[in-house]
Amino acid sequence: MNVQEVNKSNFPKVDDFKESKSSNLNDLYISAGDRCYVVGAQNGMFPDFGHHVKDEMGGVWAHPIKLLDGYWLHIREQTGDAQGFWLEEANAFHNYPFYNEHEYLFPEQEIKITRQQFCPDGLEGVVITYLLTNESDKDRMFDLSFLGRTDLSPVWYSEQIGIEDGKDDGKLDEFKGVFIGNDSINPWFVVFGADRPYQYGKVDRSLFGPEKTEGQGISGLLTYENIEIRQGETTEVTFFVAGSNKSSESALQTFSTLKTQNKQLFKAKKQRYNELLQKSNVRIPDKHLEKVFNWNKFNLDWLSMEVPDIGRGLVAGHPEYPWWFGCDNAYALLGNLPLGNLELAKQTLTLIHQVSELENGNGRIIHEVQTFGAVSNKGNTQETPHFIKCVWDTFLWTGDLEFLQSVFPGVKKGIDWLLNDMDPDGDLLPEGYGIIEIEGLNVELIDSAVYTYEALRVGSLMAELFKEEDLSHYYKKLSEQLGEIINTQLWMEEEQLYADAMATPEMVLGRIDVYIKRARDGQAEKAAIELENMKEKMSNLDPNVQQPWLFKNWVINTPMEIGLAPREKAIPALERMGTDEFTGEWGTYLSGMNQTHMMTISTGVQAVAESRYDRMDEALRYINLIASTFNKRLPGSISEMSPDYGCFVQAWTSYGLVWPLMSYIFGIQPKAYWKEVTIRPRLPQHWNKIEAENVQIGTGMQTNECSLSISRNEKEDLYEISLKEKGWKLFVDLPLEQSQRVFVDEQEVAIDVLNPLTFENAEKHVIRVLK
Question: Where would one find coiled-coil regions in this protein (predicted)?
Fold first, then answer.
């Protein structure tokens, strides 16, 4: 690739992406928009399921409310079977980046039907199209009946803030050709109809199609007669579902927009997805990983949600966590930044910050907020410093000083909360729950300590930027002290690992029997024995003297994840974490004791930790473990729990896929506010050619794009680097040896292996390293 001229024909296109299944179609899928989405089974049905809202997490949602339990189509040939049949079990499911299809084959009836659905951008509605293909040798006439089952009901945790769900009512509007459903005690509405008038309609609470769903809904059935399908041809019939939690007028207006503009809306969404692909367009030797990388762009878009009166941001996962989290986004947004979604990162952090201020007001960052604005957990200790770290990383990528200024008062309050409210013994190790929400394990935890160190470090940089010199020095001093504590008191030399927790034996003894029972209940006998040994050891210690304790949870990787661990500690710890004690077939165990469950986030943190120490082959191992679970349940996606359960799409998966690849393998590390970018590439051993185009850096006046190509052979390494805008400073930190000859733009230059090459007012450069 010549980075001086970007060839648009090299970009992948949305039309190139399709993932399909023809078995295990009881698995779930999503057709997502930023205001509305559909979740159902890949076989086309809408089974009741759900934990947070029992049996109600599927169907059509326009947060903060659910609209429908589902929709079904009945087909009857006028000259054939008088009863006709419902479309039930699809033969195949096809997932595309922004829409999906269920394929139904009826060879005896000589007809094929494809159901397609997509949710347009910015609208609370879904477009459902049926493509009916006549495979016989004669023209035929059909009647179609579309049934929608309402379930106008609120998101999880709404009852706790006084929102009550009423029974639904419904009516037909013959003039508009639609069914209108409403909640009897709330201004919640749903409207559905087709691209043509119906001839017959029915409303009945006891009316169901091929599935009977739970809830307080009501059904509307609209029948469309005399649908002609000529021999060998395909007829298209389109339905529209629209909703509102404000008024019937709003729902009807959305319905009208869907009906009159659905073709344009489809085209516009396709264009936007093509633009997503063009940003951070990478080409790497591993084509499977390259495909997964691109699908991850789509996955993150499925999780971008806007709710009026609350805000816009990245939600955690579908189908069980379609709302906003502090912890999840502290990971997920870092995977989001190198993909060019810089505004979304700022929007998400702003939403979380504003909700936290309203809920807590003391700098503490909330754990989760649902889409009516209710906070169910005011925030675990780890989330506040983790949020602060993410704010700084977002600032480095966006260069948005106004964004940083808006959050900095909360940063200062958050650090005060950590150092005072959450550290009663004053040892700089905050107490409380961390990422691992294990009941009773709310002591001084490694992840809270590590992220507090990082919050103090970046807080010092923020204070320096805003001319608060005394505060900057104070934060810096505390960060250095805390870093030393972590690397001494929480380092277990005999284990060559960091401890999970610092606690007195008395504190742990009060909880350990619960953990032993839980291990045995989970058939983790080895873990139970380890815990019993730990219990015996505790009984011989002073019950009131703090000790480091190793529970072998994956968070013991966090000192390496942020680069705090010195290399002499990091390497043996990473080596042990890479053994089958901590790493299974699909990734890093949540617990090295239990050795049962794995998550993309535990594996992702391991990948980032390896990257921090330039162990790129090892980092790639973990990246590929995540990528190996692609398509296990939902075609085009990766499950939260490895390999194939939990949420079928999860935002923080991007952290382990994108962040190590873009920030450490490609090595793109911007400081957009200062109009600087460092390129520090470190390639895995067998990767000899990689390319990245259109990597977005900065917003507003700090906007730029970076493109990078690296190729290696026996004689030389070639680096081609381009910045679209002039006036930026470029640092190029290559893995050089003193004996190598380096040519920049054909001119040989002296090198300093300890310092990067520096280019003022950089635009385009070619660097050749002779071996």
Answer: none
pLDDT band, residue 82 (cuts 50/70/90): confident
Give domain status of residue 580, yes or no: yes
The type of residue at 610 is E
Note if the pTM is more than 0.85.
yes
- Is there a contact between 297 and 277 (Cβ–Cβ < 8 Å)? yes
Together in a domain, 114 and 190: yes
Does one domain contain both 433 and 562?
Answer: yes
Pairing of strands 689-697, 281-283: antiparallel
CA dist 656 and 417 (Å) reads: 30
Provide the token pair at 354: 């504003």
Q: Could you list the residue range(s) of the whole structural domain that residue 60 is in?
A: 28-274
On whether residue 314 sits in a domain, the answer given is yes
Q: What is the pLDDT of residue 8?
A: 54
Using CA atoms, how far apart are residues 389 and 369, in angstroms rounded to an integer? 20
Whole-angstrom distance, CA of residue 619 vs CA of residue 598: 17
CA distances from 61 to 33, 50, 374, 585, 648 (A): 10, 13, 18, 36, 17
How many angstroms separate the CA atoms of 488 and 341, rounded?
39
Rounded Cα–Cα distance for residues 431 and 425 (Å): 9
293 within 8 A of 17, measured Cβ to Cβ = no
* 2: confidence class by pLDDT, cuts 50, 70, 90: very low
At 181 the pLDDT is 98
Asked whether residue 440 falls in the same domain as residue 409, the answer is yes
Report the domain count for the chain: 3
- In the β-sheet with 375-377, what is the strand arrangement from edge to edge? 324-325, 368-369, 375-377
Joined tokens for residue 478? 């505390």
pLDDT value at residue 751: 87
Domain boundary among 641, 663, 685: 663
From the list 190, 202, 160, the residue with the least C-alpha distance to 59 is 190
Average pLDDT value over all residues in the chain: 96
**CATH code of the domain in which 680 resides:** 2.60.40.1180
Of 211, 17, 241, 234, nearest to 128 (Cα)?
241
CA gap 416, 428 in Å, rounded:
11
**Domain match, 164 and 251 both:** yes
Task: With CA atoms as reference, report the closest residue to 145 among 214, 217, 46, 220.
Answer: 220
Q: Are strands 728-732 and 676-679 parallel, antiparallel or unpaired?
A: parallel
Q: Of 274, 301, 323, which residue sits at a domain end?
A: 274
Work out the average pLDDT over 129-155.
Answer: 97
